[in-house]
Amino acid sequence: MSSQTITRPAPPAESLAELATRHGLTVSGARPSLGEYVRQLWSRRHFITAFATARLTAQYSQAKLGQVWLLMTPLLNAAVYYLIFGLLLETSHHVPDFVPFLVTGVFIWTFTSNSIMAGTRAVSGNIGLVRALHFPRAALPVALALQQLQQLLFSLGALAAILMCFGQFPSASWLLAVPALLLQAVFNTGLSMAVARVAARTPDIAQLMPFLLRTWMYASGVMFSLSAHLKGMPHAVAVALQCNPAAVYIDLMRFALIDSFTSTQLPPHVWAVALGWAVLFGAGGFLYFWKAEEQYGRG
Question: Which of 96, 130, 175, 292 has the most CB atoms around it within 10 Å of its CB?
C-alpha cells in the first residue's frame, strides 16, 4: 500500500484573528489607544530625561571649550545682530535698553528654533533605536525638546548677568518668566512633534527648515521693536504679527525681565494668546504625531 499524506485545510483568517485576540496577541507595531499611549510615554519619563541629559552633555564633547558653547552660541549671535541692527541700521535708537532687549530676544528665539530643528531629526536621526526597540516614538521629540529647555535653563545665568550689567536687576516681575517659559516649552514640544512626523516621511524638510525659521525670526521682532513697524500696515497683517507665537513668548520674557517693558501695560491679549498657542500646538502636535505611530521606522 502506498502511503498518502492527508492535508488538512488551513483555518480561515477570521479564526486565526479570533484565536490571537483571545490570547492577547496584537499586531506588531500597531498604534495603541491614546490613553494607553500617554501611559506608556509617562512610564518612560526617566528614559526621556536621561536621553535629553546625555544628548546635552555630548553635544559639544568634541569641542575644546565644551559646554561653554551653550553660552557662546547665542551670545555670538546677539553680538552679530547688535553690530548689524544696533549700530549699522540704528534700530537701537528706537528701543530703550536695546542690549537687554536684543539678548533676551535672541535667547528666547534660539529656544524655539533649536527645538524645531531638533524635531526634524527626532526620528530619522535615531532610526536604529526606532527599529530595534519598542517604545512610544513621541519620547524622541519630547526628549529633544527637553534637551533644548535644559540648554536654555543653563544659559539663563548668563542672560541674568548681562541684564544686571545693563542695570536690569532682579525684581518681582522676574517671576513671570517661569509661566512664560513653561508655556513656550509646551508650544515648542508640540511643534517639534508635528515637525518630527513630517520629517520622518519627508527628510528634505530638514534642509528647508533653516530658511523658514530665518523668515519667521525676522517676523518676530527678535532684533527690533515689532510694534514700531506696525504703523501703517493693514489691520489683518498687524494682528497676525502681534499674535505670532514666537513674538508673543519673546514679549512675555521682555516684559518680565526688562524695566522699560515692565513699567508699561502689557496688552491683555498676550497671556491669553500664549496659553492658546501652547494648548493648540501642545495637544495638536501630540495627536498629530500619535496618529502615525505605526509608520515610524518603516521603509
Answer: 130
8 Å CB contact between 195 and 205: yes
Report residue 122 as a C-alpha cell: 527626532
Q: How far is CA 276 from CA 35, 183, 237, 287, in A?
A: 23, 9, 19, 16
pLDDT tens digits for range 259-289? 767 666 677 788 999 999 999 999 999 999 9
pLDDT for residue 258 is more than 80: yes
Burial call 67-105: b when 16+ CB within 10 Å, e when fewer: eeebbbbbbebbeebbeebbeeeebbeebebbbbbbbbb
Query: What crossing angle do the helices spanning 245-257 and 177-201 adopt, rounded to 10°?
Result: 160
Print the domain residue range for 154: 33-292
Cell representation of residue 236: 489683518
169: pLDDT strictly greater than 60: yes
Checking if the pLDDT of 198 tops 90, the result is yes
**How many domains does the structure of the chain reveal?**
1
User: Is residue 22 over pLDDT 70?
Assistant: no
Residue position matching grid coordinates 506608556: 40
Query: What is the C-alpha separation between 140 and 119, in angstroms, rounded?
Result: 8
Q: Is residue 4 assigned to a domain?
A: no
Please report whether residue 25 resides in a domain: no
Nearest to 101 by CA among 214, 223, 216, 217: 223
pLDDT at 90: 64
* DSSP notation for 143-212: HHHHHHHHHHHHHHHHHHHHHHHTT----GGGGGHHHHHHHHHHHHHHHHHHHHHHHHH-TTHHHHHHHH
Asked if residue 21 belongs to a domain, the reply is no
Separation CA 283–CA 277 (nearest Å): 10
Side chain identity at residue 48, one-letter code? I
Q: What would the pLDDT profile of 76-109 be if each residue is shown by its tens digit?
A: 777 777 776 766 666 666 677 888 888 899 889 9
Q: Which residue has the cell 523668515?
A: 215
